[in-house]
Design goal:
Blueprint lengths: L1 E4 L6 H11 L3 E4 L2 H5 L3 E4 L5 H10 L3 H10 L4 E4 L1 H5 L17 E5 L9 E6 L1 E2 L14 E6 L1 E5 L5 E7 L1 E9 L2 E4 L7 H14 L6
Parallel strand pairs: 1-2, 1-3, 3-4, 4-12
Antiparallel strand pairs: 5-9, 6-8, 7-10, 10-11, 11-12
Length: 206
C-alpha cells in the first residue's frame, strides 16, 4: 500500500487519481498505524515552509514517518513543498526541516526571471539515471514555486531545470526522492514518472 500523507496542504486527490490509474493501492491518511504498515509514502504539499513543518510536527504520524523513512527505509516521494520539507532549512522561514537530505531551500533569483516559476519546463537528467533514463527525451513537467532546493552533495541531484538560472528539479538518495514539479498535474509525463518510481522501488501490486 502507498500512503499519501494527508498534510492538509495539498490537493491529494489528484495524486490518488493518477496512482489509481496505474493500478496502485493507495490510502490518504495521517494515521500512524497505517503509515507503519505502508510500503511507500508520498508527501505532497503547497504553501509555506514553516506552515508545512508545523503541520507535519502536529500530526500524530510524525514519529512514525521518520521511523519508516530513516529506519525501515521504505520509499518516500516528496512533491513540491514536500520536497523542500526534506531539506535542512529554508530561506522562506525559520523552522528546521526534516533534514533527510543534505540540502537547503533558497529563493529563486528574480534578477533574470519572474517569480514564482509557473508553467511547463523541461527537466534535464544529471548523472547516472534510474527515474529519468532517457537523457534526450527532455520531458516537460508543471511547476509552480518561488523557492528551490540547493543540494550540498552533487551525487543527490537527479535532474536540473533552467529558469533564469539552473536549479535542482529533483533529487534522490537511496529511498528518498524529491521532485519540485507536480507530476500529478503533468499529464502523460507525470504518469510515466509515477510508473517509473513504482517500478524502480518494486511497488507494483503493493
Amino acid at each position: 500500500m502507498i500512503v499519501i500523507l494527508d498534510t492538509g496542504l495539498a490537493n491529494v486527490g489528484s495524486v490518488e487519481k493518477m496512482l489509481n490509474k496505474i493500478g496502485a493501492q493507495v490510502e490518504i491518511t495521517a494515521n500512524s498505524k497505517l503509515i507503519l504498515g505502508a510500503d511507500a509514502i508520498i508527501i505532497p504539499g503547497v504553501g509555506s515552509f514553516d506552515a508545512g513543518m508545523e503541520r507535519l510536527k502536529n500530526l500524530d504520524s510524525y514519529s512514525a514517518l521518520n521511523f519508516m523513512v530513516l529506519e525501515k527505509k521504505i520509499p518516500v516521494l516528496g512533491i513540491c513543498l514536500g520536497m523542500q520539507l526534506m531539506t535542512k532549512s529554508s530561506e522562506e522561514g525559520t523552522r528546521t526541516g526534516l533534514g533527510w537530505i543534505d540540502a537547503e531551500t533558497v529563493r529563486i533569483d528574480s534578477s533574470d526571471c519572474i517569480v514564482p516559476n509557473m508553467g511547463w519546463r523541461h527537466v534535464q537528467p544529471v548523472g547516472e539515471q534510474v527515474l529519468f533514463p532517457d537523457v534526450k527525451s527532455k520531458e516537460k513537467f508543471y511547476f509552480v514555486h518561488s523557492y528551490h532546493v540547493k543540494c550540498n552533495q552533487q551525487s543527490d541531484v537527479l535532474t536540473s531545470t533552467d529558469y533564469g538560472n539552473n536549479f535542482v528539479s529533483s533529487f534522490i538518495r537511496d529511498n528518498i526522492v524529491g521532485v519540485q514539479f507536480h507530476p500529478e498535474k503533468s499529464h502523460m509525463y507525470g504518469f510515466a514518472f509515477f510508473q517509473r518510481w513504482i517500478q524502480y522501488y518494486n511497488l507494483v501490486g503493493k
